[in-house]
Amino acid sequence: MYHLKSISMKALIHSVLATAFIAVLVLGCKNEQVNNDPTGISGRLLRNSACKDLKSTATTNALSDSLSCAEYQFDASTHQLTIKHLNAGFNCCPGILSCKVTSSSDTIVIQEFEESQLCSCNCLFDLEIEIVGVEAGKYVIKFIEPYCGNQTLLVFDVDLEGDPEGSFCVIRNQYPWGI
User: Fold this and answer.
1) Residue 58 domain-assigned (yes or no)
2) Contact residues for 6 (Cβ-Cβ < 8 A; gap 6+)
3) Domain housing 27
4) Longest dimension (CA), the chain
5) Average pLDDT, the chain
6) Residues 129 and 113: beta-carbon distance below 8 Å
7) Which of 25, 64, 128, 173 could form a disulfide with 178 if both were Cys (CB 3.0 to 4.6 A apart)?
8) Number of other CB atoms surrounding residue 111 within 10 Å
9) Backbone torsions φ then ψ of 110, nearest 5 degrees
10) How many domains does the chain divide into?
């Protein structure tokens, strides 16, 4: 009989330890922060142009296809920063375009995405991005673009308190820019 009690006691101890271990894991996971951005900055792509082809840009006063530019405008009352990324490079048939906006310290990062790459060509698009939760101040704006390669990055400083609107451009000479 003593042998049966020790087996039951071991099983009970193992059950209690296993339950305690699982409880610690579950409770520990619930305390993780869902939003790792304490500033509360978030953003989304509002709209994008169609693929710019050579014929349409040659007949208008469009921005040179060898430039990739960001035009920004900040509204301090709504804490909203609107950025137009002109001549963003994507596949000619990208499906849905989107972006992810994150911030760390004084840097706002805009990572651009395409849903698919259905064609064997690339072209330029204009994007309008809305970023909310932005306080007036100095920031570094950094774009992460899928087709930039080793060309000059679109990264620039802004002082939204002193200059709430402006633009910044970089020269691009590799396809799909500068063709």
Assistant:
1) yes
2) none
3) 1-32
4) 97
5) 83
6) no
7) 173
8) 14
9) -115, 110
10) 2
- Does residue 20 belong to any structural domain of this protein? yes
pLDDT at 1: 55
pLDDT band with cut points at 50, 70 and 90 for residue 107? very high
Cα end-to-end span (Å), the chain: 89
What is the pLDDT, as a whole number, of residue 150? Answer: 95
Q: Average pLDDT in the 132-153 region?
A: 97
Structural domain includes residue 178: no
Residues 78 and 8 in one domain: no
Note whether 28 and 106 are same-domain residues: no
Asked if residue 28 and residue 105 are part of one domain, the reply reads no
pLDDT of residue 103: 96
Question: Which residue is it, tokens 């060309």?
Answer: 151
Supply the pTM of this predicted model.
Answer: 0.75
Collapsed DSSP state (helix, strand, coil) of residue 76 = coil
Residue 179 resides in a domain: no
Give every CB contact of residue 178 below 8 A, 6+ residues apart in sequence: 65, 66, 172
Amino acid identity of residue 137, one-letter, is G
